[in-house]
Predict the structure.
Amino acid sequence: MGISPNKAILPPKADQIEITLIGPGYGETILVHLGNNKRVVVDSCIDSRTSEPAALSYLHSIGVNPGTSVVLIIATHWHDDHVRGIAKTLESCPNARFCISSALTKEQFLCYVISFNEHNPIAAGSGVYELSQILSILQTRSPTKALMNRRVYFNPASESGHEQECSVWTLSPSDKQVDLFLSTLTKYMPKIKETKFRVTEPEDNLQSIVTLIEIGNLLILLGGDLMETTDPNMGWSVIVESAERPQGKACIYKVPHHGSKNAHSDDVWNKMLIRQPYAILTPFSRGASKIPTPSDVDRIGAFTSEGYSTSKISSISKSTIDRPPSVERTIRESVGKIRRIQPRTGMVRLRYTVGTSEPWSVELSENACKLIDMHS
Amino acid sequence: MKSNINAVTINTKSDFDSDYRELSTINRRATRRDILGHLYLGKKPLFETTGKDEVSQIAKQPISGHIAEPDNVVSLPQFNIIPEQRITPFILLQEWEGYVQTVSDEKFTASLFDLTRRREIEDEEADFSIDDLTEDDKKLLKPGTVFRWLIGYRSIGGTKERISKIVFRRLPQWTESDFKAAEAKAKDIANRVKWE
């Protein structure tokens, strides 16, 4: 099912909530229309068709000016697949507040970013390049640190377009997560006399921001890439057990870390979400890692039948680049095949008119699919 | 089927360029050796194999039908003479810049940034056999190592070869002053950015 061209170009009405998840197989962007042309952008990836930041491409495609519409940009964490193009997005949205994990505001991390960015040996960009660009922009703006249970945006009912108050909360990172992140960072810092190399990312997502959007009684939970741990003071456990967060149950869940098992928590599904919520995710395909796996899909499917992905796993790896036959032959002979990690961008879009009994409408772009179909 | 992957270590862009000059030089030397048809076993060759001197040494030999061979020279079969103009430079068809993501026992996986199509981000990846690397290059192998992958043609004496070549870059080392400069800049930024 694709979004019909006429529908795709229509922006939501002032009283409509819209959640748009965009993902090319490596990276993701979420746009949430809070009402009355006010939007939150969470993370950033590149649109494979326009090579522009996906959030900007999408807003332009529906005739919305990002400069006047985006009120908040959140970078959940600094991995390449979540911050590609975020500096350009921030630059294009002068009215937007920028929110980043408190762990990433520490001098220790800034030193890490600067060290790698100033000695980047490769033409391709990286997460530290994006953050370095952002640090330049932020010197003239006032960014916000994401902390556990912090309200980072509020819009009164009178300005919301649907007469409901609207708040955006960050539910993580916890203090312990920040401390642990900074202590593990030293492991990734280069050493004196070590040959220079491109920045490598810590594998753990210990400092990822989880975002909760509250519109009246309606809650939307965006899981970032936060992983679960056995430590009750970190991961999802500390969020689930927190008495200070809004206690309602969310009807929409951006499944964390592309549906992987290590980001799963039964308690989140049982205590923070309604039954049969809409669960949306972007797949991840890089190296040997392809998530969600079929067992991940089954696990999520046990909690909801309303799961959607921005792309099928099977369609991600096929390279569609035309090269001369002699080059193709040499590729086959030397490495077998080249995998594409930026296939065509897919999109899942949900819309709901506040105050009506109508269900959410779900629209899928050409590449998107129901979760149960993503390995077919 | 595997083709030959030539793994070469270079230091800088100029070294990278000189790599091709070196390849060309080797070919020219080989051609001169072919002209003489000899492989020298002694430490000091009878003939200098550089430029005009080589020709002049030959010209100085007594004209008696052939050049007298010393004991430390073994005769090799005569090869056809390949004029230098028949050796073509490396013709580049495709070039990527890559960095190593992961390393396992037999292969390494790398992200590739297509320099030929001038992509803005790396959007491809491939698995490379570690066996194809030299021992020196294997020592460089770790996540973050940067390399170039080139595919092209070269032609020697009318024989056209299709080549896949990985060139590992040996970058400078991190220095104490690098870190001091980064720390100073980090402090400066931390002071300038007013976090809420």
